[in-house]
Amino acid sequence: MTTRLMQGSEAVAEAALAAGCRFFSGYPMTPFTELLENMGRKLPGAGGVCMNAASEIEAVNMTIGAAATGARVATGSCGQGLALMQEGIAELALNELPAVIFNMARGQQDYFQATRGGGWGDYRTITLAPRDVPEAVEHTQLLFYLADRYRTPVVLYGDYVIAHSTVGIDVQPIEFPATAPKDWALDGSMSGTGRARQIWTWALGKPNTPGPGPNGSWELIAEKYDQIGRAEARHEAYRTDDADVVLVSFGTTSVFVDSVVDELREDGVRVGSFRPITLWPFPGDALEQATRGCAHVLVYELNAGQLVDDVRMHAADRSVIRSIGGVSQDPSGMRQGDLLNADILRHRVRDALGLTPQGATS
Amino acid sequence: MTQREVLFTGVGGQGVQIASKALAMAALAEGRDVLLLPSYGGFMRGGKTNAGLTLGDGPLRALPVITSAWSAFVMDQAFWETVRPNLAAGAVVVVNSSLFSLEVEVPRAQVFAVPASDMATALGSPMSAAFLMLGAFAAVTGVVGVESVVGAMRQLVPAYREQHVAANARAIEAGAASVPTLAAPAWPDVAVRS
Amino acid sequence: MSSQLVVEFKPKLLQSSEHELCPGCGHSVAFRVVLDVVEELDLKPVLLAGHGCYTQLMVQSDLDSLQCLHGRAPAAATGVKRMLPTTPVITLQGDGDMVTEGLHEILHAAARGEQFTALLFNNGVFGDTGGHLTATTVVGQRTKTSLEGRDPALHGYPLNIGQLLAQVEGAAYVARGAVNSAGMIARTQRMVRRALELQLEGAGFTFVEILTMCPTGWFVPTSEGPEYLEDAMITTFGIGELKAPPG
Question: Is residue A195 part of a domain?
């Protein structure tokens, strides 16, 4: 065991290296910058390349090129930078190129971006939302595996808190099943053989090796995402078996939610919590099951209401859903604000349930 | 309400798009309702270029995708198979026989062969072949008057091709003269038009 | 020496020589120049192509290929070459792709001295979308978005990308050729050869711009394409090596 004191960004970088990442590109932007700095320090020693790109558009396109060679690759930013990368992420998906995309977000307002995507076409990204640094380390490695297994871009929804929290942690490489050899990768070796390879979203192939074309290819890719949807949903349900009330949240917020669940249980409230670990594929069936028979489904997210859309789609009874979170940014705009607070959360939950308030200011 | 469909097909660069637009414009000028939807790929030249045009003597109840067309305007045989299955039995098929030599496998089709490319070349204006065909199409079907085709052509030819207007007009007249007038009339009310 | 009909000839590095380019298009000539050099130097490159009429040449080629987002081939090439430092990497873009959409990417790749060879097929129009104004359309050129001709008061002036790149320290070789005459073709072939040789030596970023004909986009008769290229584009941009290592 080699437990070291590490900032979350450093731990995630170590996890990426442990997973075999050999290319990273990025453009500095708070709170993603430290991940870029750490990758810049660590990758060359591991035989990899870290590029400080001249824009987020350049970063994601460099990543496309590197991914096309068959390497394990990653890029990232915060939501504002990922906004520029949306076309590139769609391109990765429709080219079936594996890549890990890190959103070290400024808060929780990127849920739609992380689950619906702002690119074009029928594509999804497997998106994991860790709740703390140890989980981010585990998810990072899982994402490199899932990207290769399914030949798709995948997203880690991190945030300021995870990026900047410093904890004692031991980054251990995780073993995953072997993935298929990358017989589609480009390295020039097939040039001149009559069977040169080609990577193109239109998938028409070359004259000697015709492809399925856009219709055929995009249909197959859509089926692949359906398959992923059925196989890769992950969630955590805490004390929901006998709960009347379920609190739903994601990412860092869920740590606060779970602490409040325990306190309220001591006060006799039959409350539990549910969080999607995969924001996509959303664990709808599990949510339905966890919320069956509940009188209250309270959604606590630090935004104007994004996760709640998915909750409305899947919860057992839509009429008992309420949003009790809200927009919440620090005055700098770069991190979560006041609502990331257990007292406020507890107060809002008690308020929603019609219980007497206990402390808190809003 | 009578509705007539025209499916256009050709190879990029032969004038299929401008011909279909000209027919739509001519029909509009004569008080018909029109719906035109082109279908072409990303290439400037050489690719498939099709269009579907629906004309009516009243408000159209037409889908933009035509699966049982009354007629076809065929500049080239290259993409004929994209049009043939969407023609109704008895369809009026006007072909540019300079570039089309296939059997028209449409039951009871009324086929009119016009060697438009050769005729246009002989007139000294090879680029007017599509308008020559359009003149023939208008004369054979009476779907619009030939002079309406000329009028539409004048409006559609862009300023940088001004020098071709006279030649196009000649081609339209030559095309009209090369086919039997109203051999396959489009409209029930049109007996003889000039 | 066996004789062969011209119509039966196909370069070895093309899987098919049936293209759908307009009559008079210079792109196929320029691409043939590139393929001849690749074959001559016995290279096994990765080709990255942008979006334009030339994309189909990538498709027809027997080269490992990556089709890139508009303007972004130099960024993708950076990723490829950094992962495969000993593999020859070639990017192929038109003027719309490289100089209009992708000006940021090409300048930064050159500045970083990325070790790939960037090719520009410059015909001064966005041909594939119907003939529109690009950053290299010359003054007076009629396009569908400059119907009266490019007017500096309305549309500004064309960018001389070769000149810009020649000033970038990371660029090792910057040249401009053309394919409107046999002499020009031969000269251009020497430029492409030099650029690829320098890539193999690890000299830095290499760039060859090739002026090509687009009579369709230029609204000139097919047979007048080569002369128009001379009068409009060569007079505006010039021909030659703008930057080269000594020797």
Answer: no
Query: What's the CATH code of the domain at A164?
Result: 3.40.50.970
Write the ipTM.
Answer: 0.94
**Which residue of C37, C70, C83, C104 to mutate against A (max A Cβ within 10 Å)?**
C83
CB atoms within 10 A of CB B56: 18
Domain that holds residue A13: 4-169
Domains of chain C with bracketed CATH: 28-179+193-243 (3.40.50.970)
Split at pLDDT 50, 70, 90, the class of C106 is very high
With CB atoms and an 8 Å threshold, state whether C23 touches B47.
Answer: no
Report residue C37: phi and psi, to 5°. -70, -40
Which chain C residue has its CA at the smallest distance from B40's CA?
C129
Comparing alpha-carbon positions, the chain B residue that sits nearest to C146 is B160
Q: Domain holding A324: CATH number?
A: 3.40.50.920
The percent of chain B in helix, strand and coil, each rounded to the nearest 5, is 40, 25, 40
**C neighbours by CB contacts (3+ pairs under 8 Å):** A, B
Q: Using CB atoms, which residue from C15, C45, C75 is nearest to A62?
A: C75
CB A286 within 8 A of CB A257: no
- Domain finish residue from A142, A169, A196: A169
* Residue A213 included in any domain: no
Closest chain C residue by Cα to residue A75: C79
CB contact under 8 A, B159 and C147: yes
Residue A362 has pLDDT above 60, yes or no: no
Inter-chain touch C216–B46, beta carbons under 8 Å: no
Average pLDDT, chain C: 95
Question: Is residue B194 over pLDDT 70?
Answer: no
Q: What is residue B142's three-state secondary structure?
A: coil
pLDDT tens, position by position, A92-116: 999 999 999 999 999 999 999 999 9
